[in-house]
Amino acid sequence: MRLGLRVLPGLLLGILVEATESLDHLRVLGPQGVNLWKLEKAAAASAAGPKFMVQDGSGYALGSEESVAGFKAQWFRQPVDHFDKNSNATFRQRYWVNTRHYDPKKGGPVIVLDGGETSGVNRIPFLDTGIVEILARSTGGVGVVLEHRYYGQSIPVVNFTTDNLRWLNNDQSAADSANFMANVKFKGIEEDLTAPNTPWIYYGGSYAGARAAHMKILYPDLVYGAIASSGVTHAAIMNWEYMEIIRKAADPVCSGHLENSIQTIDGILSTGRFTRPLKALFGLSDLRHDDDFASVIESPLGSWQAKCWHPDFASTRFDEFCAALDKPPFGSGMTSLSELPYGAPERMVTLPGGLAVDFTIVNYGNYLKKYVASRCPEGISTELCFGTWDEEQYQVYDIDQEWRLWLFQVCTEWGYFFTAPPDPDHPRIVSKLLTLGYASKICRMAFPPGKHFTVPSLPNVTVVNELGDFDIAADRLAIIDGEVDPWRPATPHSDYAYDREDTVLRPFKIIPGGVHHYDEWGLLNLADEPLEIRAIHREMIYFVQEWLKDWKAPEKA
Ligand SMILES: *[C@@H]1O[C@H](CO)[C@@H](O)[C@H](O)[C@H]1NC(C)=O
Ligand SMILES: *[C@@H]1O[C@H](CO)[C@@H](O)[C@H](O)[C@H]1NC(C)=O
Ligand SMILES: *[C@@H]1O[C@H](CO)[C@@H](O)[C@H](O)[C@H]1NC(C)=O
């Protein structure tokens, strides 16, 4: 039985996200998410067997050879440190290959999908029916999912202390991919399919999308073409624009409910009176710190990103949340709360102690109680589940603590702390208590300075942005984004970026109504896909085929 509450590290870091049935969306988890992750992991430990890990001679973990959806895991040996000539430590990087469509007479291409910040197992659907299968099928190529160092079973170290995480950075992982492309020998394939003798198309979605763009810039001789889908090429310390996308794209009735309730909630919290009855409405009366409360109640907003057109991965949680907010009081005769303006006498409820609030807040509280507060196990205090001020709870270093990985990347190079808009007068759907200090304190708590490495007080986002930022561009680098993707502000389709022309050599495409890397999922029969997905897949097939027509093998030296 699958644990319904399983959560994975991902680009959502900073928001606790509700569990859904499927594991394959990027999701996480701010400070509270880490707390719950640990509690739920402990609860599941007896049900689930231990992770299959053996040690090779060097003391590094090797994974199992088990296959997923018929794809057998394979392993490629990588240096732990590509840049230190004095270190000879290595680890094994896991990958899976789809050779269904490989035509030896054509000799490629290889379509490689970067696994990004999660176990490569979660990317197998893209190899099986999604974008890798689609592009391999239309080119007679080989498809590959390459797991990212430190994630899944491609783990180069024995624990995740600050020191041992120091090889988890953009330069090292880009060097992994380059080394792989230049040297891999696929089982059962005689021909040399290494780069640059074979054209490689490098695909990634989200963080991996940024990596795809970076690979095209850093290793142009190895990467023939690259596709950055929802590629977050702009790293930012604060990521308040994420919620702006949701505020503007959600049903205006829902956004209105959220803006109004947050204003009321911030008002109550700032007076310091009635904070306890307010928290009690949300099932969080014992939560000590107001900013923790503000952070927990933000969690339903993470469901926006979980939207997906593919029926097996779709989440309807966001719409359910909106419907719950709009529920009129029982027996009021209204069919929708929004029939009357916010604060209308018919909408007001008086709480014990005398505080009167609009019924939206009661709805919001009930929703939180039912789907979030309830995740705190029986007998465990609310403070332990949702409080984030006890640093000891983040100082656990064993390799089961997957949440440390993307968090480390956030704290060192990527940022994206979820905060309120910096302008206090800007409309918002999250509390103003979500400051940069609050959102980033977990970096100091989880990563105390090591002997060899210290996490900076704020991430050095220049490491990412100097590779091109919003303006990153190259021939045969495609940029594909979703119109209502909350990560769009961090992509070249940001409102802050210059507009560009969409050409075959430099595709620049937006998926109407698309959320996060919508082109990455696919159906075996493209004709069954929704119209806008079918359209983007057709365009992608077309430009990749056109690119390949121009390919010439490099002159042999
Ligand atoms: C790695 O280097 C150490 C010390 O430089 C040496 O003792 C060891 O044999 C080397 N290991 C391998 C696998 O080459
Ligand atoms: C982590 O692993 C290193 C070896 O890489 C070891 O020296 C250190 O004691 C370990 N730390 C913890 C907290 O497990
Ligand atoms: C941040 O990264 C850039 C680019 O790699 C580097 O030049 C700069 O020295 C770094 N800044 C700090 C404070 O480390």
From TrEMBL:
Keywords: Glycoprotein, Hydrolase, Protease, Signal
Keyword Ribonucleoprotein: no
Keyword Protease in record: yes
SUPFAM superfamilies: alpha/beta-Hydrolases
GO molecular function, one term: serine-type exopeptidase activity
UniProt cross-references to InterPro entries, sorted A to Z: AB_hydrolase_fold, Peptidase_S28
A GO BP entry: proteolysis
Pfam families per UniProt: Peptidase_S28
Family to which the UniProt record says this protein belongs: Belongs to the peptidase S28 family.
Residues making up the signal peptide according to the UniProt record: 1-22
Protein name as annotated: Peptidase S28
